[in-house]
Write a structure and sequence with these properties.
The chain is mostly helical. The protein contains 14 helices and no strands. It has one domain.
Length: 296
Amino acid sequence: MIAEAANLDLQPWRFQFHPEVWLLIAFVIGSYTYAIRVIGKRVQPSGDVVSRKQLRAFVAAVVLLWVASDWPMHDISEEYLYSAHMLQHMILSYFVPPLVWLATPAWLFDVVVGRGRALPVVRFLSRPPIAGVLFNLVVMITHIPALVNQSVSNGPLHYSLHVLVVVSSLLMWIPVLGPNRSWHMGYGGKMIYLFLMSVVPTVPAGWLTFAEGVVYRSYDIPVRVWGISATVDQQLAGAVMKLGGSIFLWTVITYMFFKRFMSRFSAEQSYKQPALTYEEVAEAFEKTPAVTEPQR
């Protein structure tokens, strides 16, 4: 019996049931559905409760959250590959939070945050300097070897770190595309802000890539998924952190640049003139003085 249990533990791809993840996904879907069908109709009796774009963003956010939290990514990232763990954190910090805000109507944000004591707290924590420092502080803390090694064997600590990552990322993205547009920075500020968010994570990424030996002992195990050694796995994790996050943020910056500045430039340089109506042409002829022929 002990040998059979040991063999099961050495099977990375065996299915593992995570009811807490399924309950979380069901709660998220149920809460959003109740909000738009019940609360939304009361708050927005005459206008659109939610747009198709927001619904698509919500579906994408839920799918990514499920992929990052359930089997097989959860189990591979927690028990075998730190590079999979890094990809999991990348999804939870860079992809899911902006989709959550794109899926959240302004009225729903106001309902959740409210007008009481929570509002000034959220407003303070989402200010660019505060949110940026918190986000990067969480990035640094979640890569401390002792904490990572402990979280692998401690389920509550593992999920708590995931919650911390998601919450800090949600705060970080509010000044960029949060539902309350009055909290947004200008386009130039957004681009500088996102560029700075891509700089600090390169520190632990470079440390992982060039470190001598295995940093996280809990991932230095005999069973190797896809034959990836512990050292290569660690280097892949650094590459995912450095390139994955930076490429995504720089893509967003590039999109903002072309959307804001290049569209304005094209409009200013356009040679197309608006079409004149018949009334405007007739009025112009009436105002034009008649040309008389010179007498001979």
